[in-house]
Amino acid sequence: MLKQTITSIKVTVVLLVIVSGIYPLAVWAISKVLMPSQASGSLVKSESGQVVGSSLLGQPFAKPEYFHPRPSAAGNGYDPTQSGGTNLGPTSDKLINGIHKKLPNGKDDPTNFDGVVDLAAAYRTENGLAPGTIVPVDAVTRSASGLDPDISVENATVQAARVAKARGVSLETATSLVASATKGRDLGLLGEPRVNVVTLNLALDKSCPVSKTPGAKT
């Protein structure tokens, strides 16, 4: 019995060293050599060299001179410590129409929630679209993680006119940046073409700076 216990302890210690020590260190070392950027978190930097985010994580851009990401349900929006979606189904009235209530003191209820109808109206207004215009689905729905850094090419193209006007550049310039930032389907088959909002906005700051280049922050 004692011999079996000692053997079990030895096996546990050996596996612990291999699984929790040697293996992760080997994976880290190999990735640092083969994929140094990804192994470091896919960090992106401004022109000054300051780290302003990761290409894997979206940010809540809101100014008119930037391309905006899709809505987020992670905390108050793009909070990496509260990653998650709404978990609402397509037939949910809350998802479609939202919740809009007032507290007895007249202030907005903290549980209020903008639905697809609200988000679509806001998207049309900020991008100068006519009422009732069909908008890209990713512009009015939240991703499962709440941290999705990508938007559809259609979404980015619609926003290009607003960004061009705010930056004082031609629409052609803005759309060419969208085209340059567009990534195709993975392996040519998986997913859809998409645009990384963080890297696109950094390219904007580099190519079409406003009065002072603010980097990838709102």
Notes on the protein architecture:
It contains 7 helices and 5 strands, in the order ααββααβααββα. Helix 5 runs antiparallel to helix 6 (171-181) and helix 6 packs across helix 7. Mean pLDDT is 87; it is low at 212-218. It is mainly alpha-helical. The strands form 2 sheets. The protein has a 3-stranded antiparallel sheet. A hairpin with a 5-residue loop joins strand 1 and strand 2.
- Main sheet: strands, sense, barrel: 3 strands, antiparallel
Portion in helices = 40-55%
The number of helical segments is: 7
Question: Which percent band covers the strand fraction?
Answer: 5-15%
User: Could you tell me how far the N terminus lies from the C terminus, measured between alpha carbons in angstroms?
Assistant: 65 Å
Largest sheet strand order: 3-5-4
Q: What does the radius of gyration come to?
A: 23 Å
* Structural class computed from helices and strand pairing: mainly alpha
What's the overall average pLDDT, rounded?
87
Poorly predicted spans: 212-218
Secondary-structure element pattern, one letter each: HHEEHHEHHEEH
Shape: extended
Count of strand segments = 5
